[in-house]
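Sanity check

After download, print the first record. It should look like this:
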Amino acid sequence: MPEFKQNYFQRKTKPRGPRFNHRINSPEVQVITSDGENLGILNLQDAISRAKDQGLDLIEISPNARPPVCKIMDMGKFKYDQQKKANKAKKKQRKIELKEIKLRPVTEVHDYTFKIKNAQKFLSKGDKVKFTIRFKGREMQHSNLGNDLMEKIKQDMQSIGKVELQPRLDGKQMIMVIQPL
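Expected structure tokens:
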């Protein structure tokens, strides 16, 4: 029976993050010190030995440049700073939600105004609003009532949002999506 390595069945993972020290695969690199001073183009082994003399690592900052740009700094500190930047960027992201407002073709005026106010509140927060008009029984024969209601909604929402998805009949319901301006 053939002998297998212990990690034979494990999936090989690509190393994450930038290449550093002996993983850099270019014979010459442009070196920047930890102070920001440019040392110029050096042989890879010389650059690594300079970094080791200071007790630091040689990290590839710009791999696509010719020759690649490397900086002498601590790898742990570099990874920590990158993680901080990623977390800060993630905090600033805003996830847009889709809020749904359901109506009937025979919705009364007071209920309609209440739902329109809610929709305007959602749009002002930056969320999209999906209007759904559900038809029951014989109401399907009067789909023009739904069209009229959707037109009224469009005009009431014109100041705060624009129509992303035009009103369309989908089975027993009519759907329209409005996004904030």
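If your output differs, re-run the checksum step. Summary of this record's structure: The two ends are 69 Å apart (CA to CA).
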